[in-house]
Amino acid sequence: MSRIGRHPITVPSGVEVDIDGREVTVKGPKGTLSHTIAEPIEVQMEDGTLTVTRPNDINKVRGLHGLTRTLINNMVVGVTDGYKKTLVIQGVGYRVVAKGQNLEFSLGYSHTITVEPPEGISFTVERPTQLVVEGIDKQKVGEVAANIRKLRKPDPYKGKGVRYEGEYVRRKVGKAGK
Questions:
Q1: Residue 89 to residue 115: CA distance in whole angstroms
Q2: Taking the mean position of all CA atoms in its chain, how far away is CA 56?
């Protein structure tokens, strides 16, 4: 068995899991998420725990087994606690401003960049140089944070740009003058 896939998923109180054929729907205090399970994988609900099983040991099926268990576990955690990523903006004149639901970035370009939150994602500007991306879908939170980081990646020479909190930016030495 897959090492990750063999672990049962404990469903906390206040979370409702509905298995309808190949569709798993998880409802919790923060919202609802659903996922379609790949063909050979089976999911059973027993006594407040979810168990993911597979019919055979083919490599592709073994990979799907662990993946399915992790995706369902991420859905359970998302509807109870939610996910968040913190981004730090570094550089002279680089900042972010909240304009209603949208964010307006000044990142050293000749224009400002406006970012609209997709459905299920919210932005919080803690400081002009720090923002938090929050939501219940781990994949969507990570994707939105990566797209914001992509607006101005950290510069390896001066360290300017948008980076994740705690991300180490490897610095390069500039050319030596004579």
A1: 15
A2: 31
* Owner of token pair 């798993």: 24
Q: What is the pLDDT of residues 2-21, one digit of tens each?
A: 577 788 888 888 888 888 88
User: What is the mean predicted confidence (pLDDT) over 112-139?
Assistant: 92
Question: For position 89, which CATH number holds?
Answer: 3.90.930.12
Straight-line distance from the first to the last Cα atom of the chain, in angstroms, rounded to the nearest whole number: 63
Q: Is the pLDDT of residue 62 over 90?
A: no
Q: Residue 135 pLDDT more than 50?
A: yes
φ and ψ of 83, to 5 deg: -125, 150
How many domains does the chain divide into?
2
Phi, psi for 67 (deg, rounded to 5): -65, -45
Looking from the CA of 79 toward its CB, the CA atoms found within 13 Å total 21
Task: Tell me, yes or no, whether 151 lies in a domain.
Answer: yes
